[in-house]
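Folding problem:
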Amino acid sequence: MEKSITVTAAGKINLSLRVTGQRHDGYHTIDTVMHETGLHDTITVTLGGEGITVDCPGDIEPQSNLAYRAACAYIDACGAETGVHIAIEKHIPVSGGMAGGSADAAAVLRGLDSLIGTVDKERLYGAALSLGADVPFCLAGGAMRCTGIGEIMTPCRPLPPHKLMIVGGCGEKRSTAAMYSELDRRLGRGADGCGGESRIDIGGDMVQALESGLLDRICAALHNDFELVNLGCAEVRRLLANCGALGSLLCGSGPTVFGLFEPAFDTAPAVDRLTAAGYRVLYVGI
């Protein structure tokens, strides 16, 4: 008989993101505070049949889908002889800076671990890291300060009560690699990965702001290096501020933007204004 489980895959926002350098193997090092959101995909994992199949919107080849690769990694790690079918209901914007693909991969790992349960935590996180730098955070969830290439995680206090708005249509979708390359040029890093390293403790500032539990202090500490090379976010951030947001920021490398409001704030007029301006409000929640 087939065994099945449905799990959620939460998108993330970066409350702060500083690109601190580039390793000689090409990977960039970062200092970022990530926070999961209520905007999520829904993943159904079913054991049975032969091979690994993925049902997902869009034209992505199964072998290029991180969810497919996550299933391969888990089956390889546990040695189970079973087919896997993955059905993905997408809500997180594709290539929007919210780690949608990484969240889906992490959800597949969690789902398979619930159904099979023979992989220890160390190997599970090793499989996650093999899939991408954001996947370990998406597997852990919550709020984390992430350093290294994103795999070194330290839990931090989550956001206090707030209302979160996520806005799409804020600029051109570009690959993360292209955004890093442009940022390297702006920060003066050479091809050897040296130069332009940051010593400003942006991540530490955000952790301290979160510890205070004060939303206005947290919003004052919001920072994302990628805003240097994603100029399309500036106008929507101005509009969010005019609509009453205490703070706003680019999600990851963009182009999606989020805004933070007081928890009781009426965001309906803001949704109307943003929609009239041609943006897409993807999520409003607490």
Summary: The chain has a mean pLDDT of 92. The longest strand covers residues 3-22. The CA atoms of residues 113 and 271 lie 39 Å apart. The chain is about 35% helix and 30% strand.
